[in-house]
Design goal:
Length: 262
């Protein structure tokens, strides 16, 4: 749990009685904690989207650095914000999922921002063919675009960037929410469930969705439980072929090997 004396504070258009009458097409969710230095750029990248059929939710774990003041500054622009203690990033995102009213759900970090004002228009101008849409991100640390179309084999060895994915809300009814036991890589476990279920039909669109800072929580922390259990998850849930493929790639590809080192 994040160390804070805050019990619960909420605000935004919902609290002010300004929420839209119909459910939006997409709910955008940001988990924050002491993000005053970056959240405003992220927020504005969403508010200035040409696609207006969306809502924006911010779930904060009890910031003490000025983030609450920024949320209040944008009181009439953010659909809903919540400040209360949580058990980490995925606990916050799970709260956001429960609060989301959109048909689609998108997660973006406080250090990240949508690549331009037309990106939601590009994603939703045509009706999606599946329950999961994903594109690319511009990855700051590597200075390149990450990471193209995924297959099941590719996903076994590397994850799709969270900031590249739009999930139909039905997926969280089918598979449940993020498993909080995995403090850094719970979305990887969820993405595997999506790719290995024929009902989902993940749809790749060749466009950059967001600028991904790449030095946030997931880059600063190691998910020990994930790394302890991942191989057994692949073997038990997805079969020997993918287990052997993963082991082979670890032996032959230094980049894959590095992902599974402590």
């Amino acid at each position: 749990m994040r160390d804070t004396d805050v019990v619960k504070i909420e605000g935004g258009k919902r609290v002010l009685g300004m929420q839209q009458a119909t459910a939006p097409k997409v709910s955008i969710i940001t988990s924050t904690f002491n993000a005053a230095a970056t959240i405003e750029k992220c927020l504005n990248s969403i508010l200035f989207q040409s696609w207006t059929d969306r809502e924006y939710l911010i779930i904060d774990g009890g910031s003490t650095d000025g983030t609450p003041e920024l949320l209040k500054k944008y009181e009439e622009s953010i659909d809903y914000w919540l400040i209360e203690p949580d058990e980490g990033v995925y606990d916050a995102l799970n709260k956001g999922i429960a609060l989301a009213r959109g048909e689609w759900i998108y997660f973006i970090g406080a250090d990240d921002y949508l690549i331009d004002s037309e990106v939601l228009q590009r994603v939703f101008e045509k009706d999606p063919s599946g329950l999961m849409i994903y594109g690319n991100v511009y990855f700051n640390v590597q200075g390149n675009i990450y990471s193209g179309k995924f297959s099941r084999c590719k996903l076994v060895t590397r994850n799709i960037c969270h900031q590249a994915i739009f999930y139909n809300k039905r997926l969280f009814e089918m598979f449940g929410r993020f498993d909080k036991r995995y403090r850094v890589l719970a979305d990887w476990i969820f993405n595997l469930k999506c790719f290995f279920d024929k009902r989902v039909k993940p749809q790749y669109i060749n466009t950059i969705i967001a600028y991904y800072y790449g030095k946030g929580f997931s880059e600063r922390n190691t998910d020990v439980k994930f790394k302890e259990e991942y191989f057994e998850i692949i073997r038990m849930d997805y079969g020997w072929f993918y287990y052997c493929y993963l082991k082979f790639k670890i032996l032959t590809d230094k980049h894959v090997r590095a992902r599974f080192q402590y």
